[in-house]
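dumping this here before i forget
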Amino acid sequence: MRRSTLAGTSAPTPVPSSSTAPESRGDWHTIGRLLPYFWRYRWRVGLALAFMIGAKLANVGVPVLLKQLVDSLDLRPGSAQALMVVPVGLLLAYGMLRLCTSLFTEARELIFAKATEGASRSISLQVFRHLHDLSLRFHLERQTGGMTRDIERGTRAVHALISYSLYSIFPTLVEVVLVLSLLALKFDVLFAWITGAALVFYIGFTIVVTEWRTKFRRQLNELDSHAHSKAIDSLLNYETVKYFNNEDFEAARYDQSLERLRRAQLKSQTTLSLLNSGQQVIIAVALVAMLWRATQGVVAGQMSLGDLVMINAFMIQLYIPLNFLGVIYREIKQSLTDLDKMFGLLAREREVADAPGAQPLRVAGASVRFEDVHFAYEPQRPILKGVSLEIPAGRKVAVVGPSGSGKSTLARLLYRFYDAQSGRIAIDGQSIAEVTQHSLRRAIGIVPQDTVLFNDTIAYNIAYGRPEATIEEIEAAAKAAHIHAFIQALPQGYQTMVGERGLKLSGGEKQRVAIARTLLKDPPILIFDEATSALDSRNERAIQAELEAAARDKTVLVIAHRLSTVVDAHEILVMEQGVIVERGTHAALLARRGRYAQMWALQQDGQDAAATSAAPHG
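structure:
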């Protein structure tokens, strides 16, 4: 056998500690992060903006046409022909402007929908890919429900920002500019000053009060979630509540949460009423001032009745959308916060990344070597303390030892879920830190102790080892894992759904699906991490024979608790507290009468006791 020469160990690197998500940044920073996703749709954005401006021009034209319509009715005696012609034409034009407003608005939304959906899809896909690139440490520390809610809310935030900004705020601003310009040019500039001042007061008041009441709204949401959590927790633990006769206690605890929620709702409603009342006062004052100025102009003969109607229509058109400004402002702020949280996931740096210029792994014989490997999940708790071992190509090496000794950590390091702080791991002489992770994991197959299946069919879960496999290959792998007969006996066969995390299958059935999945992948390196721990003795012996056949001519690392499953290994390593305390063949370790021999004796005594208790009494 050829042994590769390994370079010296690398300098220790600090262990990444669990960190929180990056702090939220400013709103403009978040908007800046969002804009590049819309750049590819820039022509659609421009066209949508053009339709939006067209819709607002038509909308502003409606009061102007209404003025003409009212003024045309104030005719001198004898103008019967004009009375018959002018209003009909104006009425048709009025209807066309209304129609154009709706058509341009719908065209804007239709044109921009592809940009919104495309940007949302791109962001979601990028976050999804990035989450798969993050280390196992991140996924062990995360809260799945909270993270998925961040992604869900962030995706919705893209739609909300577009809806509230492009469809509400920006069009309103365009309309405000058009109306102010028209009032200043056609009438007294005082009309524009009154309208502008009212808008400034209105917007300022809305923003200040909304910011103030946000804390009450946030408190309301937290108390609502808390009350909901209490109720769900109590219902999920229904049997425990009954065991201890604590129905009244649970009801009282839930009622306390509801009382706090009631008080928060009243406070939130009070602040909302204050906001709405203040807005209406500003609108009323502005309307009175504008109409007073306009009626003065009509009495003085400087303005017509149509001018008065037009000014009133302008004010109504402006203030109706502004009535929702508080809600819109709050939703925009919340959307920016949600979007920033999702971008925060993208900002998480990958703990394990491919080295610059990493090349694919070239597998020749698939020999594996650990050299003086030190590793710790947390700095204060080292797991591996200078572990060195070699698995020659085509050989089987078993690692045994008590829980917490570092056995499964070897598999995680070989898969490069983590990087060792010092030392080197190599396959066929190539450091796994210098090859691409994709090629590395393609060369390794694992049957884990805790098998988790996708909520899909049995066929899908087996084919996950090689998605392009044919049904014949899937069935062959199932036969090798001794689960084909069980699957065929099911009403839906291979199309049977396994349920969330495979909960519709027993532990042994899930384990055999995992074995079939790995056998279908057929990699040169195999890891069996307590692969038969969930099987009964008869199935364990049958599958053990199949695993041995599947592992023939492959490099195999067996992590085991049952010593009876590793007696045929070429070498057995005994680990305790992160170090290898013994190594050798089964016979040699028994002859040494050391730690392995003690473990063997204890397991044999346990099996004898179990057999005795199971035997029928005479």
